[in-house]
What does this fold into?
Amino acid sequence: MAVHKWRQRQSRHFGTVWVPYAQIELQAVHGVFQPLALQIDSGAIVSILRRSVAALLGIKLEGGRRIELGSVGGGSTVAYAHEIQTKFADDIAYSVPFAFAETESVPNLLGRLGVFDLLQIDFDATLTQTEIRSPWLDPPGRRLWKFLIETEAHIMSRFPELEVSDFAKNAIRCFLNRGEQIIASAYAMMRHECCYAGPALVRSMFELSLQFEYLMQEPNARGEQYCEYAHISKHKMSQAIVANPSGIISAYLAASPLRVEGEKRNQAEYDRVRSRFMSRNKKGKEHIWENWYGMPVRNLAEKLNRDKEYVFIYALTSAWAHGDPFSTTYDDADAFCDPHVLFPIVKGYYARMLLTLVDSGKIVLSNEQYNFLTTLSQEMS
Amino acid sequence: MRDNDFAWLVEQGSRLFTEYAGKWIAVRNGEVIGVGDTATEAAQKAREKVPDGGFILEAIDAEADVIYGGS
It folds into this structure.
């Protein structure tokens, strides 16, 4: 990735303005790359350089295709198109079309063709900088991504026809919504080349898919259980907030005029549902379940015959989550930080959830859609 | 990539716009080592100073209030 800070310039009519610049390297005919700083212009169809740059690179100007470039002011400039090996970042050279003007009276500009359509260019107004990186998905990856979105949309369009209770529908919607959020987080990490927290996402997605499989075995009963447990969670959370009265969230809630009413309502809901999430330990002491399914994640994985997966995923992700010395010392200790590992795994678990819904809800997919989800869900295991 | 020289161009932006408007400049290690009316001229002067060293080139536009774009 290349990061190029913007520059401030004094303009005649608009005061001080920010101007995005980039550093590129152009390959001369004798093979050496020459660094050049120039403005980025997303309005220009093609990058344009002055005549003398062609001479500097040893390019015969008129050897290229003659073109006429119009400008927003209405004038035109004669130029010659040449493909130049160009580096933007990471020492990778791309073949980029440039229009070399006949004159020296045009600005050097980095335009769209072969640049904006091949690379990912982010104009960051917060940090006043432009970030240039390779695309976060290659062309086959983009096709897969698009097909996953289309398949998911198809499944969701059939969602209202599912013959399950409203509780079940609500629970299913919650799980799929969280799955989409995790996918979106993985997307954002990959897009910004910051996959450091990849193990956290993998672990969340794995647990989500386990719970979803469990839910879909008996969607009506477990859907109700899932929705009702939300009152237990809410109560636990409010207790935690009360226990930490100096925190930001506590202060915010303390100032709320709705607090007293809300606490009463939460308590009433908690009292209503708590008996169904109550167990006794061996000594006969009562305790409330730690989660809606009433067992440790490991037991849930065993119940679903996913125990080997559980051991694998937890061995890799727990090290990251707990700041394990091996994990923090070696960059390659966390395989899930690699986008080529992270994305297939996260997508794979989401595909497994969609397949579980399709299989249990009798949603009809085309062979292509069904095989696609099956392949995605198998690729990551 | 000559990242330090690009960063220097950013830091010195205002001064360079005032001092070298309309010119090409060649920069190496935080120093303007070549100035000219064309890229070749600025590069030639830079090579006279530093025969085997790299440098970054930039044409300092005279005018900021310009709309480019076009097709």
Notes: The longest strand of chain B covers residues 31-36. Chain B has one domain: 3-59. Chain B touches chain A at residues 1-3, 5-7, 9-10, 13-14, 17, 24, 37-41, 43, 54-59, 61, 63-71 (CB under 8 Å).
